[in-house]
Automatic annotation (TrEMBL):
Protein's name in the database: diacylglycerol cholinephosphotransferase
Native species: Mycena chlorophos (Agaric fungus)
Record has Cell wall biogenesis/degradation as a keyword: no
Cellular component, GO, one term: membrane
Catalytic class of the enzyme: transferase
C-alpha cells in the first residue's frame, strides 16, 4: 500500500465528517432545496455516483468550450461563442454545486457515509477548481492573460487553505461568505450575464457602468474594467480567507509554528509553475500566449489535485506523518523550467524547448504524466479503502462476513442535516 500505511488503516473507521457552515444563503435558501432534491434520488444510487455525475457536467462544459474555441481566445481575439454556451456553463455549475451538496445527504440516507466519500468529494472539487477558473475567465473576456493565471493561483490557494485548515482543525469551516456557496453563485451570475450581453460586457469600466464618470472627484479615479475589478475583489476575499484560516488553525493548535510551514508546499509548487510559464521566448510566443496555455494549466491542476488528495488522505487516516511536504512532480517541473532558462543561465539553447515542436511535446508530456500519476493515486487509494472497509465505490452495498456483497440498510434522513457545499 503505497499511499496508506497498514498501521493507519484502522483509523479509517474512526473518521467522521465535521463541518461548520455559517452561510445564510446556504441555511435559508439552498439547504431547503438540497433537502428536497436528495429525495428525488433512489436509495440504490451511490453517493459517489452523484458526485461523479456533477463533475461529468463540468467536463461536458469544458469540452464544449474547447470545441468552439480550441485555442482559448476571447471575443476580442476573433472568436465569438454562441450565447447559449455561457447559459449552459451557468446551469452546469449550479447543477455541480447541487450534486456536490447532496452527495453527503445521500450517504447518510444509505448508510454509506465515511472516508471514501470525503476523498472522492474533495478529489472532484479539486479538479473542478481549475476547470471553472478557465471557464470563468473566458466568460470574463480575460482569455490567455496573466489575469487568468492569477485566477488559477487564487482558486488553488483558496482550496489549499481550506484543506490545510481542515487537516489541522478536524472540520471544514465555511464562513458567512464562502467560495463553495456564494462564490459559485457569483460565477453562475457571471456566466448568465455573459450569455445575455457577451463577454465584452466585462471590459466596461466600472465608473462607466455605475455612471460616475461625470461625478467630481470620483471621475479622477481610474475607470478599471469590470473584469479586473472582479479580480481585485477576489484578491481581498482571498486575503480574508487566509486570515480566517490562520485564525481557526491557531485557535485549534494554540501555536502556529509547524502548521504555517505546511503552507510552503503550495508556495513551492506555484512558484515553479509560474517561473516556467513566465520564461521569455525570442522567436515565438511564450506558453502564456500560445495554444499550450490551457494544457499547461490543466497539467498544473492535475498535479494540485493529487497533492491536496494526499492532504485529505492524511486527514481521514489521522496520519500526521503522511502530510505531503514534497511532490515528485516538482522535480519534473524544475527540470522543465531550467531547460527553458538555459539561454539565460549558461548562454545555450534549451535542450528540448528550443523549438515550438519541442515545447509542445514537453507540455503535453507533462499533462499526460500528471494525468497518469493522479489516476494511479485515485485507483490505489479507492482500492485500498474499499478493500479494507468492505465497501463499494459506485454501488450501495457492503461486503459481509460471509464474503458476499449485500445492500446497505438506509438510515433515517434528517432534514436538519447541513452538508457542506464544497
Amino acid at each position: 500500500m503505497r499511499y496508506i500505511p497498514r498501521d493507519a488503516l484502522p483509523n479509517l473507521h474512526k473518521y467522521a465528517y465535521k463541518g461548520v457552515d455559517k452561510s445564510l444563503t446556504s441555511k435559508y435558501i439552498l439547504n431547503p432545496f438540497w433537502t428536497w432534491f436528495v429525495t428525488l434520488w433512489p436509495l440504490n444510487v451511490a453517493p459517489n455516483t452523484i458526485t461523479l455525475s456533477g463533475l461529468s457536467i463540468i467536463f461536458l462544459n469544458f469540452a464544449t468550450l474547447m470545441y468552439y474555441d480550441p485555442k482559448y481566445l476571447t471575443e476580442n481575439g476573433g472568436v465569438v461563442l454562441p450565447s447559449w454556451l455561457y447559459f449552459s456553463f451557468a446551469i452546469g455549475l449550479f447543477a455541480y454545486q447541487s450534486f456536490d451538496a447532496i452527495d453527503g445527504k445521500q450517504a447518510r440516507r444509505t448508510g454509506m457515509a465515511g472516508p471514501l466519500g470525503e476523498m472522492f468529494d474533495h478529489g472532484c472539487d479539486a479538479m473542478n477548481t481549475t476547470l471553472e477558473a478557465l471557464l470563468a475567465c473566458h466568460a470574463l473576456n480575460l482569455g490567455r492573460s496573466w489575469w487568468t493565471v492569477t485566477s488559477q493561483v487564487a482558486t488553488l490557494a483558496n482550496f489549499y487553505l481550506t484543506t490545510w485548515e481542515e487537516y489541522h482543525t478536524g472540520q471544514l469551516y465555511l464562513g458567512v461568505f464562502s467560495g463553495p456557496v456564494e462564490g459559485i453563485l457569483m460565477i453562475v451570475a457571471i456566466f448568465t450575464i455573459s450569455g445575455i450581453f457577451g463577454p465584452s460586457f466585462w471590459d466596461t469600466g466600472i465608473l462607466t457602468f455605475l455612471r460616475l464618470t461625470n461625478v467630481p472627484y470620483i471621475n479622477s479615479l481610474p475607470d478599471t474594467p469590470l473584469n479586473v475589478s472582479f479580480m481585485v475583489f477576489s484578491a481581498f476575499g482571498l486575503l480574508y480567507n487566509i486570515a480566517s484560516s490562520c485564525s481557526n488553525v491557531s485557535r485549534a493548535k494554540r501555536a502556529m509554528g509547524r502548521p504555517i510551514l505546511l503552507l510552503l508546499p503550495f508556495l513551492v509548487s506555484a512558484s515553479l509553475q509560474l517561473v516556467w510559464l513566465a520564461h521569455p521566448r525570442a522567436s515565438d510566443p511564450a506558453i502564456l500566449y500560445s495554444p499550450l496555455f490551457v494544457p499547461f494549466l490543466c497539467a498544473w491542476g492535475l498535479q494540485f489535485a493529487r497533492h491536496v488528495g494526499r492532504m485529505i488522505l492524511a486527514h481521514v487516516t489521522q496520519d500526521g506523518c503522511a502530510f505531503p511536504v514534497f511532490d515528485s512532480m516538482w522535480v519534473w517541473t524544475a527540470l522543465c523550467t531550467v531547460d527553458a532558462y538555459l539561454p539565460l543561465l549558461i548562454g545555450r539553447p534549451p535542450l528540448i524547448q528550443s523549438s515550438a515542436l519541442g515545447r509542445t511535446v514537453l507540455v503535453y508530456a507533462t499533462l499526460a504524466l500528471s494525468f497518469v500519476l493522479y489516476g494511479q493515486f485515485c485507483v490505489e487509494v479507492i482500492g485500498d479503502i474499499t478493500d479494507y472497509m468492505g465497501i463499494a465505490c459506485f454501488t450501495v452495498r457492503k461486503k459481509g462476513k460471509d464474503g458476499e456483497w449485500h445492500g446497505t440498510v438506509p438510515v433515517a434522513h434528517t432534514n436538519g442535516d447541513a452538508k457542506k457545499a464544497h
